[in-house]
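Known limitations

Files may contain more than one protein. Parsers should not assume a single record per file. Below, a two-record file is shown to illustrate correct handling: read the sequence, read the token line, then continue until end of file.
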Amino acid sequence: FVERATAVLELLEQLHQTTGRAHGHLSLSSFWRTPDGRWWMLDAATRAAPDPRFANPDDDPTDPRSDLYALAALLYAVATGALPFGTGEGAPVAHRLLRPPESAALPGPVAEVLRTALQKSPHHRFSSARRMIAAFQQALAALDGVAPDPREAPERVPGGWRVGGPEPTLEPAPPRAR
């Protein structure tokens, strides 16, 4: 699963660097699954509207972080068989209020990578596909019992905050008044 995700992320990283734009419309129809299980991206050079099931409605489709959100939603759907924020009328705005539910189909460290990529605000997500690949590599290492090296850690929104505390954020604290 992570190997396939990493292959797509490497392609997205190359797309982002060479074209200077995001894919912008990832969906299940963007990929072909080969008999050996690999995924081939079919529509990297085409332009289309974002798929509302996988795109954050508040995102700029030209921002590469919108691709990371869409890919994380796709990966969650492929692994669990359900969309990360459900279906129905409220699904397009549910990402503003909810976190993707826990699933036995995804190990904790891998689910945390997807949760970071599915953050509501783009500046809370990974800044690049390369950073998301590094997070997946650390998740696999954590599953093998290897402690992550903090010097190599990609940005992550902390998951364990105080119950009832403020929502986790990477934004700096506001200036204090004297």
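...continuing to the second record:
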Amino acid sequence: HRDITKGSWTTDGKINELDMNQFSDDTVWMVTNKGGWCFIPVRKGVYECHFGYTRQGLRRFAFNHTRQCFDIMQKRGAKTLVGMVASGNTLAKRFLEKIGCKSVDRKDGPFKFAGNKTDLEIYLWQS
């Protein structure tokens, strides 16, 4: 859904399209018709994460759904969840901080958000 990718950063003028078929069978998808999360195993207890919600899925729904997803991942043995968000995407950054994620680093690159050059911030959640 376009609302999910609307907040994404772009590289070389293109939004990073998510193709679910490119991921291994070990990837965990927790997606509803309002959006959700993807957890890609990196190594034991560590997952790379991606998320997105439609307009109808923002706020309370996204917060509650994310808490459920993180609880399930913790029960599955996740110790660290890591992801990147455009530094200019203040809504996403506030959301991640509200659910307990911490900004730990930045990645420079040819990224744009809302038409402006941006860095990517790396966020961690740890159980």
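Parsers that stop after the first record will miss the second one. For reference, the second record is described as follows. The chain has three helices and eight strands.
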